[in-house]
Write a structure and sequence with these properties.
Rossmann fold; globular; two-stranded antiparallel ribbon; 7 strands; 397 residues; alpha/beta; Four Helix Bundle (Hemerythrin (Met), subunit A)
């Protein structure tokens, strides 16, 4: 990364935090008058050559579909909506099987993505009731894909017996989900696709997967910090649930946070909650205590990393979605320019820019992308160009 100005060394701090988030280490050696050498090590997965089947699936372009999402966890819904709308599909939502039954009877859908474990009515029961309704009313079969963290053969068998047509992993694996949708809608083959192995458990955060899911590092960071803030109070009660051996409630909470952590690509946290869920199912207080401690420690580490990154790059700015004037846009760009000149970016300023409703959306997106890619010289040039074009001709830049 090139830079035209001497900075404060913030880049090395950010690099250290990113490497640590990925479960790695970074070291530096420096000799006066000669220079510095930085080295880092991170655990990574071996890349695999895409199979012919995967390439074929990627080439299939689905038409715009009307899809019903059935899930009781808000973040799962948000992520699925983001992924599906990114692929130009129309989305409707139900938060339990009972709501899904009503929506399937009153609205037209091309596909249903159905969570298995939900309150009020679970996904398996809802699927059985839908198949019975179709038979009684002479309706065509509505394709239903099961969404579940279960990976055992009996989990798939239960889905088949309930009348489901497909099976996709939770946490969401975007390529595998789209491939399964394609298979269910185009092949007519009732054999469910093999699920993709979950990412390497020793990575604290799988950055590639997180960006693939949420679209950018900024969006991923915001989702992680949002999860940490919203869940803090409830997670603080988990120790009480363990102490009183309230196994069903603790298992339910572990199941929920396992899925949320997976969707945020927080792999170590996901595996800790998975182990806690299994221990609760077996009512093993010793194992549950150990895995809850692991999960809480991992949450503490993630929170500290997020706080350090936030304090290093954030200036508190109140973000209000409104129709801003060019004056406000120029002011925001000039504030961002001060950071970019020092090879920094401010997430709150980028979020403010992203919310601007303006006819200069393409130029704004280019600046945000350059910052997210740490291309600060490129971002600076685009900021100057946009500010100059927005200024009245009788006012100097």
């Amino acid at each position: 990364m090139s830079r035209r100005f001497g900075g404060t060394g913030l880049g090395t701090t950010i690099s250290k935090q990113l490497v640590e988030l990925m479960g790695g280490t970074i070291t530096a050696k420096s000799e006066l008058g000669k220079g510095s050498t930085f080295e880092f090590n991170i655990p990574v997965k071996n890349a695999k050559q895409p199979s012919a089947i995967n390439k074929q699936a990627q080439q299939i372009q689905l038409p715009q579909l009307s899809i019903l999402i059935v899930d009781d966890i808000e973040q799962n819904i948000d992520l699925l909506k983001l992924v599906l709308k990114r692929n130009q599909h129309l989305v409707s939502v139900a938060i339990n099987g009972k709501q899904a039954i009503a929506k399937m009877e009153s609205e037209q859908f091309d596909l249903v993505l159905m969570d298995i474990q939900m309150p009020v009515m679970d996904g398996l029961t809802a699927a059985r009731m839908r198949r019975q309704y179709e038979q009684e009313n002479g309706l065509a079969r509505l394709p239903i894909i099961a969404l579940t963290a279960g990976v055992l053969p009996q989990d798939k068998q239960s889905a088949v017996e309930a009348g489901m047509d497909g099976f996709a992993n939770k946490p969401i694996n975007v390529p595998q989900l789209l491939k399964e949708i394609t298979r269910v809608l185009t092949s007519g083959d009732t054999q469910m696709a093999e699920t993709t192995p979950i990412a390497e458990k020793y990575l604290r955060v799988d950055l590639d997967k997180g960006v693939e899911l949420w679209g950018s590092k900024t969006s991923l960071f915001n989702e992680v910090t949002g999860f940490l803030n919203k869940s803090k109070t409830h997670i603080g009660t988990l120790q009480d649930l363990l102490d009183t051996q309230a196994w069903p409630l603790l298992e339910e909470a572990a199941h929920k946070y396992k899925g949320v952590a997976g969707n945020l690509a927080l792999n170590k946290l996901m595996y800790s909650f998975k182990a806690l869920e299994d221990a609760c199912r077996k009512k093993s207080k010793e194992k549950a205590s150990r895995f809850l401690s692991e999960a809480l420690n991992e949450l503490h580490e993630i929170t500290e990393c997020a706080d350090r990154m936030s304090s290093a790059t954030h200036t508190a700015i109140e973000i209000t979605p409104k129709q801003p004037s060019y004056t406000e846009l120029i002011e925001t760009l000039l504030m961002l320019k001060e950071h970019v000149q020092n090879s920094e970016f401010d997430d709150d300023l980028l979020d403010t820019l992203e919310k601007f409703e303006s006819d200069r959306k393409n130029e704004i997106t280019t600046i945000i992308t350059a910052c997210n890619d740490f291309e600060f010289d490129v971002a600076l040039n685009h900021i100057d160009t946009l500010v100059e074009s927005l200024q009245p001709t009788n006012e100097p830049v």
